[in-house]
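User: Need the bound-state model for 2-acetamido-2-deoxy-beta-D-glucopyranose:
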Amino acid sequence: MKCAVSLASVLPFVWPALAGSFSVVDTYQGSDFLNRFDYLGIADPTHGYVNYVSKSTAMSKGLVSVSGTNFTLRADDRNIVNSSASGRDSVRIQSQKSYGSHVTVINLAHMPKGCGTWPAIWEVGPDWPNGGEVDIIEGTNDIPNQATLHTSSGCTMPALRDHEGTSLTNDCASNANSNTGCGVLFSRNNSYGHSFNLIEGGFYAMERSTTLVKVWFWPRTATNIPVDVKNGSNTINTHDWGRPQAFFPDTTCGMKSHFSTSNIIINLTFCGDFAGATYASSGCPGTCESFVKNNPDEMIWAYFLIMWLKVYQ
Ligand SMILES: *[C@@H]1O[C@H](CO)[C@@H](O)[C@H](O)[C@H]1NC(C)=O
Ligand SMILES: *[C@@H]1O[C@H](CO)[C@@H](O)[C@H](O)[C@H]1NC(C)=O
Ligand SMILES: *[C@@H]1O[C@H](CO)[C@@H](O)[C@H](O)[C@H]1NC(C)=O
Ligand SMILES: *[C@@H]1O[C@H](CO)[C@@H](O)[C@H](O)[C@H]1NC(C)=O
Ligand SMILES: *[C@@H]1O[C@H](CO)[C@@H](O)[C@H](O)[C@H]1NC(C)=O
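Assistant: Bound-state model below.
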């Protein structure tokens, strides 16, 4: 008996953490997007044709609104843009809290759609690119979603990896390939734009640790949505979620040094480096800026409808 006691004092019993298991730390829904996010009226560093408005302006112009637990964020769809403005009125919000290793799950019913729109839900650390960037939802036109990492130099991805999507460029460094990042194009075209909105969207999830980043997507109509995701359960287990659309392993990256704690950002810009560059091949009329400037009635679908967003650790 004495032996057992001394053994226990040498090897204290530690309850093993269940791999893949996380508990909710923050639930954002309805007015949480007004009160627990900052509204930043900054100039778009990616040259978007946008005027990010303050919280009070966004509220008074109806660019953000709350209905029950739903939150809507949209661009102005009433006015031709004043020639002296930096672009169309829109909104960029950033979570007040930042997160290290965590899982983000988003129940999204609608995303901005329309010629020239460039919406994104993403996470970024301080002192870009040093703190790292994970783009969970990003795209333009009606191509499938693209998930991308942007880092300082020295982080690359193996070309072949275990995911559903298609690996694009594999150097995550912002100073490589004109800051294209290491992106993955999703295999499901209802992950983005009009096809996504037709089925009232679905669920996005992103897991980030010091050894991996994974991004999943389940259309609302899918029969294989994990029940913890669909229910927004207080505890989740990412091990049961199957193959992700995008998998970024730490093999040749060094995530510990390339990613800091990051804030969640939701923004909607227009044209600029991405939507502007792909506009000509998108089948949209005229030039990007003149279309976005002169056609407020074409912007009625340019909104996010978020039912909830939860963060787990
Ligand atoms: C809006 O989001 C995209 C996300 O990829 C980003 O590149 C762009 O810089 C953002 N604009 C602002 C002003 O944050
Ligand atoms: C929230 O949005 C969903 C999806 O569009 C809709 O079915 C539901 O009626 C909305 N609830 C409220 C209170 O607006
Ligand atoms: C356009 O912006 C200028 C400068 O802010 C302002 O003087 C003018 O009244 C605006 N025009 C319209 C139609 O809002
Ligand atoms: C999705 O993509 C497939 C294959 O490229 C295509 O056959 C199908 O028509 C597309 N569906 C929609 C809704 O765009
Ligand atoms: C999910 O929600 C349904 C309906 O509210 C409930 O019956 C079920 O027990 C929940 N499952 C889990 C794992 O939370």
